Amino acid sequence: MSTPRRIPPRRPQPYRPPQAPKEGGSADGYASLLLIPLVAIVGFLAWDEYQERVNEAKTEGRTYSLVDDLLGREPEPAAPVAVAPEPAKPAAPEAKPAVVAESKPKDSGPAYTETSEDDTAYSFIGPALTDRATREKLLADTAARVADGRWEVHASRLERGLVPALKATTRSSGAKRYDRLWQSPYFTLGAMQAAFIRRAGPDKLRELTRDNEPAADFLRELTARPEALEAWLATVKPQDDVAAGLRTWARLWEDDRPEFRWRNLNLQVAMAVVYDRPMHWRRLVREANPIDPLRRYRWYRDHDQANRLETRLTQLSPEELVWVVAADVSEEEMDWALREFRRLKQEGWGSTYGMIKYRMDFVTGGKPMGPDYTDGSLADILKCGGICMHQGHFATSTARAVGIPAAYVTGEGNRGGHAWFAYLSDRGEWNMDTGRYSDGYSCGMTGDPQTGKAVPEFMVELLGDKQRRSGAATAARRLLLISGFYGQRAEDELRRETLAQAVDTADRFLPAWEAYAAALEETDAKTSLATWRSVVKGIRSAFDKWPDLRLLADELEARHIAPTWTDNEAITALRGQYYRLAKEHPDRMDLILKAIHRQAAHWTAKGPEHADRVRNLYRDVMRDHAEHLPTFKAALEGYYLSVKGDKERETFFLNDLERTYKRKLEGDGDVFRMKTVSGLLGAMKEYYERVGQVERFRRLERDQEEIARKLEKLKKQ
After folding, report:
1. Mind listing the pLDDT tens digit for each residue in 671-691?
2. The CATH classification of domain 281-464, taken from the options 3.40.50, 3.80.10, 3.10.620, 2.60.40
3. DSSP structural state of residue 634
4. How far apart are CA 493 and CA 166, in angstroms?
5. Pairing relation of β-strands 445-447 and 454-456?
6. How far apart (Å, rounded) are the C-alpha atoms in residues 403 and 398?
7. Residue 373, exposed/middle/buried by CB under 10 A (0-12, 13-18, 19+)?
8. Domain covering 526-715 in this structure, CATH number
9. Mean pLDDT of 259-267
């Protein structure tokens, strides 16, 4: 019989009086309050991570399993999914170019013809992104397109595969949503090919290879190199002759040894976009002579490889090299410059402007102060001297000869026309002021070597912006390409969203702002006033230190926001812009005058009841800025147009004009000032003649004759 287990008596517990709750709640209460939002945040992040992995798996062509992920199991990848071609709409089937056999000679080379070849879209989803075989297949198809010219089909297959892959990325990742795709060499090649075909044009590509096997070899290699396609796409402009440029590029490429054909990619691209039209070198006393692009390319290539230039051309971008290869002097003169300035460094190249002795006899027509030119070469200019145009030409041409990007700049100021030059310093910034006069020469113009058109000098200075040479600018360019793909497939909302991401990625990349504004204007009825205000504010903020580039914001504001202003809002906004310019950039009379024109245009559009406002604007700017002769001259026309047809106000206009001239402009000056004032008197005479003030007209003629006598005296000194 077992002994029962003895249970020890329970030990008595000491009495503890009840505790009063602490003021403000218990610690458990605080913990609960903190735990609820913490759990919510963790849950949100977990859900976002889950969605990210689901979308990532979808892009890779598999199904994501949370259980497999938690257990650490690798799921079996699903079979690659082919992207079927989009069905054509019954009412509007996709038209293919008709081929008229008799319109082309039998030996005209490859032409686009219909074929039963596979038209399935390329897949850029799932294992295809990393499968080497898919890239090899794309390269083989591309080589076939060089032979048969079916570029329209090739571009369509690419775009119909690219857009689904782009749409499958995670939207919440913003501008970085496409980064993973760009990491795939296959996707990058497909994207660059699609953009290249659309930009160059199928007809131009067929024309390039017609009866030209070396050009066909070039195109096969070019379309296999995404970095080369991207360099060209980043440099080409709408004004370029693509067909001629590609022909030039093919010649240069063929001239290199096979193993070195892509070493000078940036130089080749710059030559292709500059020498897509005939270029010439000129001397002062001889006719223009054509430049052979191949000879010019060899000159730069060989001297760069021999380290004879002041820069390394392989380290300059195509955009910068455009301002090198367009030197308008002969190769013999460039050889002379290399020998003459072999000890001069890039940072000190501004000194070349002052090396040319200034010849006042060229201005006054007086007694010669030096020898006459013999051949007008750079060496001849250095020996004989010249005026500002010779100084600018000499400094620009010698800089380009040694590999330094440079620009010849001209402008109008208080002493008439003037020429100076700008060049890229060794710090990567443009020196814009060598040879510039300080009295009113705030903004000049230069010739764009790529287009042959005159452009404001700030477009050159912008090339030195650090952001433009950064990865952010590259990312913005790629977003512009993606927006183009969305546009081709009528995905307008995604197109605008991508353009907005581009301006966020590189806010000082002007092409992104221009493309974004253009896309919004295409659907202006759907673009809210708040969106336009945000865009205008964004441009002004991004280009706060670049007043010229804020003009885009001013134009958008005038078209889309200003029509909604009340009179008081208009006065506040327009005057505010004017006063800010006058305060921050008092020397930029060109921008100040544009601000006046903008105000005048706004009030003119509001109706004739605001005519006095317009008249007062131009009267005030004529009086306040008369010392700057180009501004005074421009204000005259605006003032006259505001009173034209009203005889009484036309008389007031002439009285204002005469008083301002006598108080601020009349009087002697140097020869440049006297010539400029004489030209101004000629412009003023036209207004007296229009209004019929014959006596005043004759008085101005006498003033001009007096200036002419003074200038004649200077010739004899």
Report:
1. 888 888 888 888 888 888 888
2. 3.10.620
3. H
4. 13
5. antiparallel
6. 9
7. middle
8. 1.25.40
9. 96
